């Protein structure tokens, strides 16, 4: 085996050395607010209106109780988790 081949093999990760982590490119978060704690307890419609006044470009999703949601993270979305009476039960936030 040539010296160059040996050097390349030495540089490869093995069981004793962790593999390098991939480099992920994240888009930077938008400016301004990223959560709205003041909207806890208000109706979903009121919360949606207030968020849209501040950031009209956001998509608002109203999530009924016990609903399943995906785990993806989106900087253009706010989920409004509501209780049985239609009031915001969790702090709305981007994602």
Give the arrangement of secondary structure elements.
Elements: H1 3-11, H2 44-54, E1 59-63, E2 77-81
Parallel strand pairs: 1-2
Q: Overall 3D geometry?
A: elongated
Q: Give helix % range.
A: 10-25%
Q: Major sheet, described briefly? A: 2 strands, parallel
Return the structural class.
alpha+beta
Proportion in β-strands? 5-15%
CATH class of the domain at 33-95: Alpha Beta
Order of helices and strands: HHEE
DSSP strand tally? 2
Distance between the termini: 52 Å
Average pLDDT figure:
83
Low-pLDDT residue intervals, each spanning 5 or more residues: none
Region (Disordered): 1-29
Family: Belongs to the protease inhibitor I13 (potato type I serine protease inhibitor) family.
Protein name: Subtilisin inhibitor 1
InterPro entries: Prot_inh_pot1, Prot_inh_pot1_sf
How would you summarize this macromolecular structure in one to three sentences?
The protein is of the alpha+beta class.
Give an overview of the whole structure.
The protein has a domain at 33-95: Trypsin Inhibitor V, subunit A (Trypsin Inhibitor V, Chain A, 2-Layer Sandwich). 21% of the residues lie in helices and 11% in strands. It is built from 2 helices and 2 strands, in the order H-H-E-E. The protein has helices spanning 3-11, 44-54; strands at 59-63, 77-81. The protein has a two-stranded parallel sheet. The protein is elongated. The relative contact order is 0.20. Belongs to the protease inhibitor I13 (potato type I serine protease inhibitor) family. This is Subtilisin inhibitor 1. One of its GO terms (biological process) is response to wounding. Pfam families: potato_inhibit.
């Amino acid at each position: 085996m040539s010296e160059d081949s040996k050097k390349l093999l030495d540089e490869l990760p093995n069981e004793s050395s962790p593999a390098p982590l991939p480099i992920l490119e994240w888009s930077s978060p938008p400016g301004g607010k990223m959560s709205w704690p003041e909207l806890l307890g208000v109706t979903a419609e009121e919360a949606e209106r207030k968020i849209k006044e501040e950031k009209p470009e956001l998509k608002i999703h109203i999530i009924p109780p016990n609903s399943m949601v995906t785990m993806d993270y989106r900087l253009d979305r706010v989920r409004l988790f509501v209780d049985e009476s239609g009031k915001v039960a969790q702090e709305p936030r981007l994602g």
